[in-house]
Amino acid sequence: MKMRAILLSLGTAALLTGCQNMDQNGLLSSGAEAYQAYSLSDAQVKTLSDEACKEQDSKASLAPANSTYTQRLNKIASALGDNINGQPVNYKVYVTKDVNAFAMANGCIRVYSGLMDMMNDNEVEAVIGHEMGHVALGHVKRGMQVALGTNALRVAAASAGGVLGNLSQSQLGALGEKLVNAQFSQRQEAEADDYSYDLLRKRGINPSGLVTSFEKLAKQDAGRQSSMFDDHPASEARAQHIRDRMKADGLQPPAAQ
Ligand SMILES: [Zn+2]
């Protein structure tokens, strides 16, 4: 998410950045390779995610290990568990005013300090659980396949002779941006919400944070420009869905803000 993290808001133009000299014939003639790039294996997705995560880290301001942010995130991480469907996770804080968080298929989880500033631990757990859901449910992998399958990145990847051969730094950066700012369908968002709810319950964490984090994000979006709203539409309905689930489970939903 940057809670936006999860937002694929970059358009095709941005993805073409590294490929402006690519000619149309090249694009059209590489159909076979393109298909290969589009149907990535889990191993390829992991490799590409490793690279994209490293690239994002290199551009970010990472919170030091002894910082309050990192210590707080470590505590949150231990509450959530150390893996997504068996994939070990790796948490870091990006120090920035932006409000976002994202998870990649290789277990790379990044939380922005701007999000940690506006949310309590319970809410951050809910948000990360949601992001983990996008990975666990295959949304992130699908997003990567779409990114590689719909534009020049695909050609660059395919023509490197085996898929992920040699994406240039800028191509990798563009792919990383796609992942960091992924936009999912409303259905995927709802599925990730349910995943987070189930995860929180399983880990003995109060799911109230799901409701209140939505409400905070919605309020923030009303107050200033943010792309979070793009990816997390219908936040009222989503909050209500979680309230309903809590009631069905005999839990007291949080009071309306
Ligand atoms: Zn989402």
End-to-end CA span: 22 Å
Strand content: 5-15%
- Computed Rg: 18 Å
CATH fold type of the domain at 24-183:
Zincin-like
Mean pLDDT: 78
Please write the string of helix (H) and strand (E) elements.
HHHHHEEEEEHHHHHHHHH
InterPro entries: Mito/Outer_Membr_Metalloprot, Peptidase_M48
GO molecular function, one term: metalloendopeptidase activity
Family: Belongs to the peptidase M48 family.
Cofactor: Zn(2+)
Characterize the structure shown.
Helix 3 (31-38) packs antiparallel against helix 8 (139-149), helix 7 (121-136) packs across helix 11 and helix 7 (121-136) packs across helix 12 (208-223). This protein has 14 helices and five strands. The two termini are 22 Å apart. A hairpin with a 2-residue loop joins strand 1 (83-84) and strand 2. It is 60% helix and 7% strand. The protein is mostly helical and 257 residues long. It is globular. The protein has helices at residues 12-15, 24-29, 31-38, 42-59, 68-80, 113-118, 121-136, 139-149, 152-159, 169-180, 186-202, 208-223, 228-231, 235-248, and strands spanning 83-84, 87-88, 90-94, 101-103, 108-112. The chain has a domain at 24-183: Zincin-like (2-Layer Sandwich). Strands 3-5-4 form a three-stranded mixed sheet, sandwiched between helices. Strands 1-2 form a two-stranded antiparallel ribbon. The protein binds zinc ion.
